[in-house]
Amino acid sequence: MMLILFIRIQEGFAAIDISSNKFEGKIPEIIGNLKELHSLNISSNILTGSIPSSLGNLRNLESLGLSQNKLSGQIPQQLTTLTFLGNFDVSHNNLTGPIPQGTQLTSLNSTSYEGNPGLCGDPLPKCGNQEAPQPSPSTEEDSDSSSARTLEFDLKFCLAGIGSGFVVGVVLADVAITRRQELFLKIVGMVRLMIWKS
């Protein structure tokens, strides 16, 4: 199912989010051909196998979400070439081995790697020490409340955008339908000017 899906995706896409879809199977190596990709989120599926080393070909990748799957094996060394990668989440998989060192992968928060008892190395405990530090309950509560505030903030902006878009659409439709072309063109010109200035 995954192989067919990625073959049909155009190579020029900048963002792909197919999270929470119950996709099964392995992530195909062909995914490395999507070279214009800036964001890839395939979290919360039932993906198995290893993380494809071809993801290292996605030089523009800024965000990679692979969490909550059943991925196994090591994090490929090729991911160290992704210099723009600022958001990386492989939490809650079955990954093992050392996290590639000396890269931005070691500067990320340890929550990006939690739920993988076989992973080790910065930012997790050193390899050979199997005890991972348990986050304090207050940290989890702070994270939950921060996430809730962010969601509430995003929802307000989303609703404001939908509301204002609806009002503008109704006004423009009314002007266009009643054939007040002069007023319609004036409004469109003002909108273009506002967009051009910003």
From TrEMBL:
Keywords: Cell membrane, Glycoprotein, Leucine-rich repeat, Membrane, Receptor, Repeat, Transmembrane, Transmembrane helix. The keyword S-adenosyl-L-methionine does not apply. One of its GO terms (cellular component) is plasma membrane. InterPro entries: Leu-rich_rpt, LRR_dom_sf. Belongs to the RLP family. Residues 119-146 are annotated as: Disordered. It is a single-pass type I membrane protein. This is Receptor-like protein 12. It is found in: Cell membrane. The keyword Metal-binding does not apply. Its main location: membrane. It comes from Prunus avium. It comes from the Eukaryota. The gene is LOC110773706.
